[in-house]
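re: ur question from earlier - yeah i can do the single chain one, its not a big deal. heres the input i used so u can compare w yours
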Amino acid sequence: MKVLIQSARILDPNSPFHKKTRNVVIQNGRIADIGEKNYQADKVIKAEGMLLSPGWFDLGTGVGDPGFEYKEDLESVARAAAAGGFTELAVLPNTQPAIQTKNDVTYLTQGNAGRLVQVHALAAVTRNTKGEELTEMIDLHQAGAIGFTDGLKTIWHTDIFLKALQYLQKFNGVLIDHPEDIWLNMFGQMHEGITSTELGLKGMPAIAEEVAISRNLKLLDYAGGKLHISRLSTARSVNLLRGARKKLPVTCDVAAYQPLLNDAALASFDTNYKVNPPLREKRDNEALIKGLKDGTIDVICSGHVPQDVESKNVEFDHAEPGIINLQTTGANLTALAEYVKWEVLIEKISVAPRKVLGLEVPVIDVDAKANLTLFDPECQWTLDEKNNLSKSANSPWFGKPIKGKAVAVFNNGRQKIDD
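and the output i got, formated as tokens:
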């Protein structure tokens, strides 16, 4: 089927059509033509005011498959991702068993030939993500793992962290770490501050993240290698990375919701706002936005961590952290666009994550493979029981009106187009 995307604004820093409004023809999985002519097509998408970019890539998606399929499986996460505008996912290893063998990597990736949304494996650095014993990372790399991380868990063991940096240099691999001092955060429920004191909840101090980042940067300087810090949340973390980037090969990301929400949201004890790293203070929000604007923060990720009802509909102290956010990341971007230019935001969710992982970056040009996301920043909609494609519903935006929605995605010769 020939599809015409009519009058979309193209945002792709690698494209000769960057920031230009053009008609784009897609046929047989490729971009057949780009121009201003009135092309004929089987399907016409009127895209005035919409943004066309390389397909969005999520750097670090939480999935329950294998082991916790009742929270999210590979089929449900692919559906939610496509609806949210993502064409590729790098999946975290926090499953049961953890993604730590060749067979585990193959399990995740074996269906890619027939998928619209491509699934990539981020393999565990340590066995069972416990931080005590290294996995066979060279074998995992050869099996197709595109990065190495303990995912939602920090690599707390200093010697293991150091050896991982050295080991990965054999094939120019990237080490991804969730920075957290687990002892400082022990029993913590939310950001340590005035709100946590008022609510009587044990706090997770900003310094728990900052100490871990400082340690990681010093080890990187000592050992060499490539390091990516995931999900920044504090103002000082941003400043640490801003200084380090001048001399070290380090990159970082932020969850799309983190600059938009702060700890005041937890005043009602709504467990859907309980995340790790926790929602911080307004000054941290401002620092994260500044980091996005000045290039300190390379990547925006969804921060998608599905949790079933039994994990959220409990007392706050017992609730598991996490937000489902694949379908609502676009709405987060629309809110962030009040402070950061669209071309900057789009680059951080499409081009930058692939660069961090050393993957091929799609380009919007004639005869290129069609790996595209069409996004309408003005679309008003509501995430509810009817259109939620995740198996879980732990979202603070559930049932609330939001703005910004993916209209179509194209990848691997396949497509999803909203009616």
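The longest helix spans residues 206-223. not sure if urs matches, ping me
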